[in-house]
Amino acid sequence: MIVAVNVLTTRARLRFFLLAFLGFFAFYPVRGSLFAYFIYGGTVQGRAAWNYIYNNPNDLAALCLLPLALAAGMLATERERWIRYCAAAGAVALPFVIFLTQSRGAFIALAAFAFVILKGQKKLRGKILLAAGLVGVTVYLFAPASLWQRLGTLPDVTSEQSAAKVNDDMSARQRLELWKVARLIAKENPVTGVGFGAYKDAHYVYAQRPEVDPIALGHRDPHSTYFSLLAETGIVGFALFFIMVATVVRDAERTRRRARLTHPAFATQLFYMEIGLLGYFVAAIWGSFQMMVLTYVYFVVISATTQLLKGELPAMQRSWAGRRTTVSSFSRAVTGRSAAV
To answer: Are 8 and 301 a contacting pair, CB within 8 Å?
Structure first.
């Protein structure tokens, strides 16, 4: 984060970073997960995945939301045709990968992302709906039947009683039980939690209590950023984390609103980044992302984009003020001559 903040200080550097980041992400993990899914058969219970931090389908799906927002932002700012084609391809391929992971949480996050985009970008609704249509056709042609079966269980995974009846290898029931353990830990360690990085050991102890279902036994993760933060770092750590998030988002939103009229393309780019973060934190309900490197890289990218746009605003405002002064002077001159005539 320190390096990125001190390097991404010009438009050229930020542009180069975004192009490189999206290019690398296209090869790893997007290409890797697609090849594994369609060619090598390397799936996790029929769900798309790759390796390292992407070996969990839910994490892969959630992490795809961030480059999706960056690709949409490139479409708003770039004029070079090949970059726009690549960004458009990413805007279709990334939701497709999300669908192949069959992650219900990421699907909800993607729906929230699309809804806010459609509501906030009225002029671009036609293009957005076209992209959504392409994604829909691609999913319909290539997605397995298990995708629709899994997404069909969304209404039934909100309570222990209904989750126990869902045929998803006990995924929903297990997650609810893991959340129960996380709530117990957070309740008994409310201020500072059990300590940073100590959650799995604490879970092992608490999961042996009689009120906890044996399905939650072991050194487990809570599979929720919010429960994980509360249990590990308590209210103090939870507050500090989201103060950081709020600081980044507040500055970005203020800058975006100021730049809407004078610099609409970069304001739109910042808008997509903000909505990408919103979708990511919706997905974070079902995944632990507070330790993911990409989480903090994305914070830096939003902050760097904000600072660059903020630095350009005074010059633009002076330019517009000068134009208004020139127009006003011209109007007065014309009015004076008309009166004289």
So the answer is: yes
How far apart CA 201 and CA 185 sit, in angstroms, is: 11
What tokens were used for 6?
Answer: 């001190």
- Give the CA dihedral 182, 188, 194, 200, nearest 10 degrees: -30
CA distance 254 to 250: 6
Q: Of 128, 127, 68, whose CA–CA distance to 96 is shortest? A: 68
**Alpha helices, H only, the chain:** 2-7, 11-25, 32-35, 57-77, 81-101, 104-120, 125-142, 145-151, 160-163, 171-188, 199-206, 225-259, 264-283, 293-340
The neighbour count for residue 208, using CB atoms within 10 Å, is 13
Nearest-5° angle of CA 227, CA 231, CA 236? Answer: 100
pLDDT digits (tens, 9 = 90+) for 87-117: 999 998 999 999 999 999 999 999 999 999 8
DSSP state, residue 284:
G
Q: Which of 124, 240, 151, 230 is nearest to 187 (CA)?
A: 230
Q: What is the mean pLDDT of residues 239-260?
A: 96
pTM of structure = 0.84
The answer to whether residues 232 and 191 touch, using CB atoms and an 8 Å cutoff, is no
Binned at pLDDT 50, 70 and 90, residue 155 comes out as low
Distance CA 6, CA 302 (A): 14
Spatial distance between the Cα atoms of 138 and 132, rounded to a whole number of angstroms: 10
Residues 307 and 266: beta-carbon distance below 8 Å: no
Handedness of CA 275, 281, 287, 289 (dihedral sign): positive
**Rounded CA separation 128/163 (Å):** 34
Q: What is the pLDDT of residues 30-85, one digit of tens each?
A: 999 999 998 988 788 889 999 999 999 999 999 999 999 999 999 999 999 999 99
Q: What is the largest CA-CA distance in the chain?
A: 97
